[in-house]
Amino acid sequence: MTTAATAATAATTATTATTATTATTASAATAPAADSRALGLAHYAARGVLEHVLARHGVTFRQQVALRAAVTAEAPQTADDLVAQVRRSLKADPAGLRATLAELLDKQLLVADGAHLRPTDAGRELIAAVGAETAPISARIWGGIPAEDLAAAGRVLALVTGRADAELAALTA
User: I want to staple 123 with a disulfide (CB 3.0 to 4.6 A). Which of 119, 131, 137, 173 is the partner?
Assistant: First the structure.
């Protein structure tokens, strides 16, 4: 390669790098600020994906959350335990959550064992199947986001969740 060609290549590389840096800076500068609306849009976009998968399995989002709580519990849970756990996650009314548990019992995804509700093999298989179907989608959604961005987002979301939980507790006290 001649000296002129090398200089031209270097100039092109420098221009490309500057353009890429400018584009990254510009996109970061024009990115919307994190707020309740942005959080809600992200939540509902991701939930829409999950609900699409759940519909193919004949279960609702609320049923999946309750069933997952039973499947992932370290010990058998009573209905009251599951209602309390799911209520902390979904902020849903206890009567509606009890109806959700009844639906899971009717679908034979949970079974009563004395005072405890246990997931059936079908319930465990359903949670595993949904996880297997959503894993590649989640990888596409979350892939390529730098670890430091995910850590920062995690810290902010934990803070917002704690503050919102405190405000809800004050409103319902």
Answer: 119
Write down the residue that tokens 């584009």 correspond to: 23
| Alpha carbon distance 148, 125 (integer Å) | 34
Q: Which one, of 24, 123, 115, 104, lies nearest residue 62 by Cα?
A: 104
- Integer Cα distance of 81 and 90 in angstroms: 14
Q: What is the Cα–Cα distance from 71 to 77, expressed in whole angstroms?
A: 10
- pTM of the prediction? 0.79
Give helix 61-72 / helix 36-56 axis angle, nearest 10°. Answer: 80
Please report how the helices 79-90 and 94-106 are oriented relative to each other, as an axis angle in degrees rounded to 10.
Answer: 120
Tens digit of each residue's pLDDT (9 = 90 or more) over 57-116: 999 999 999 999 999 999 999 999 999 999 999 999 999 999 999 999 999 999 999 999
Q: Which DSSP state fits 116?
A: E
